[in-house]
Amino acid sequence: MVDAETLLIRVQSLLDNDQLSDAESLIDDLLKHFPDHGPAWAVKGDLCHRRSDHQGCVDALEAASLQMELSAENQLQLAECYAKVGRCDLAKWLLRDIPAKPDSTDCIIMKTAASLGRLGESGLSLDLCQLVHRRSPQRHEAAFGVAYYMNRIGKEAAEVVPYLRAAYELAPDNVMYRVSLALCLDRLQRTEEAYRIVADLDLHRVEWPHCLTRLMEIFASAGDQSRYLDCQARMMHLGDPKAEMGRNGDPERQ
Q1: How far apart, in Å, are the Cα atoms of 94 and each of 42, 47, 91, 145, 166?
Q2: Nearby residues of 200 by Cβ (< 8 Å), 6 or more positions away
Q3: Contact call for residues 129 and 153 (beta carbons, < 8 A)
């Protein structure tokens, strides 16, 4: 008979190749023969998480936790699924513990910050993003995360700008970073600087009508009617009725 570890390697290979149905059949068969195998339950939990089977993930990872300490990734999956099934306090408790785990990577900590943010814990999310930004300043998503959660807890735009600029400089092709920096500069009345950042922006990559509205204001302030009308056309393409307002107007009067 094939041992559990060999079967588990096969299951993981199937998961890595997105063969979820085959992986599920094999892991279920493995657990019939080895019902107390913690790592097998952890893999079952991972599979359920990939399938958005939230209760199934909870059941599997709780079973795994009775046999072994969960990895940081599995604990994050369990916390996310606790939140999905309405057990938010338990989710928050697990999430707070993840950064201290020895196998908690920058990526896992950033995902933990996002999960805490969705649960209304923006202050804790900010702390985690700052932690990653301090130890890995080359990670653009950490710099942006600091800016995002600073904004969520009401920090002044002047405090937010340096982190948006850092994110933009690390990943200049990221449209969200570029637009966010321009809008933040505009809030600080640094409209000319904001305009320079987005003057040649490909508006087809901007998916957020509220941002396009703000960009229209920047282009209007700069007297760039062509770009103003490009924004308006993009908003109409996205189906925003606000784009109908002032279609024939002078952008300098908007």
Answers
A1: 16, 20, 5, 21, 31
A2: none
A3: no
Per-residue b or e along 28-65, where b marks 16 or more CB atoms closer than 10 Å to that residue's CB: eebbeebeebbbbbbbbbbbbbeeebbebbbbbbebbb
The 10s digit of each residue's pLDDT in 201-228 is 999 999 999 999 999 999 999 999 999 9
In degrees and rounded to multiples of 5, residue 56 shows phi and psi of -60, -40
User: Is 98 within 8 Å of 128 (Cβ atoms)?
Assistant: no
Each residue of 12-25: pLDDT tens digit? Answer: 889 888 899 999 99
The pairs formed by 155-162 with CB atoms below 8 angstroms and a separation of 24 or more are 157/184, 157/187, 157/188, 158/188, 160/184, 161/185, 161/188
Place of tokens 């190749």: 17
